[in-house]
Amino acid sequence: MNFKYQKAFDKHKLTGCPPSGYEPLGTIAFCFVSQALDDPNNFLPALLIQPARVNSVNDLASKCAGFGLSLFQSPQGAKAKFEEMMEKTRGNFSNLVGDHLAGIALNKEDGIGSQQNMDNFSHFTFHE
């Protein structure tokens, strides 16, 4: 499978990215977006959102995850994570990822993702 951000994997020497345990997913997923539909940061992996944060991640596994989409299996999980992050960042989280929730349909041909993490609000990482 060819990945949308393969050049980023190569540039950062992310061999084994995405991890071998990731699988094709056919599901509805939820992600944070800005209200402005034309915001260039909407639907981008965390490490491609501007301002860039790629140098703030040191370990390879986190960097690999940072080039995947951060998604949630349930809107309730996403909302709970949003509230937690707003508290941790003193209200700045919404400036980074947006303050709205979008639902997206993933087809198995769209990429591969991790298993949802129920300890992390149904979060999963998806590589297009």
Name its key features.
single chain, 128 residues, alpha+beta, 4-stranded antiparallel β-sheet, two-stranded antiparallel ribbon, 4 helices, globular
Secondary structure blueprint with pairings:
Elements: H1 6-11, E1 23-24, E2 27-33, H2 60-66, E3 69-72, H3 75-88, H4 93-97, E4 100-106, E5 112-113, E6 123-127
Antiparallel strand pairs: 1-5, 2-4, 3-6, 5-6
What does this structure look like?
- This protein has about 130 residues and is of the alpha+beta class.
- It has a domain at about 25-40 and about 75-128.
- It has helices spanning about 5-10, 60-65, 75-90, 95; strands at about 25, 25-35, 70, 100-105, 110-115, 125.
- A 4-stranded antiparallel β-sheet has the order 1-5-6-3.
- The longest helix has 14 residues, at about 75-90.
- It starts with 5 loop residues before the first helix and ends with a strand.
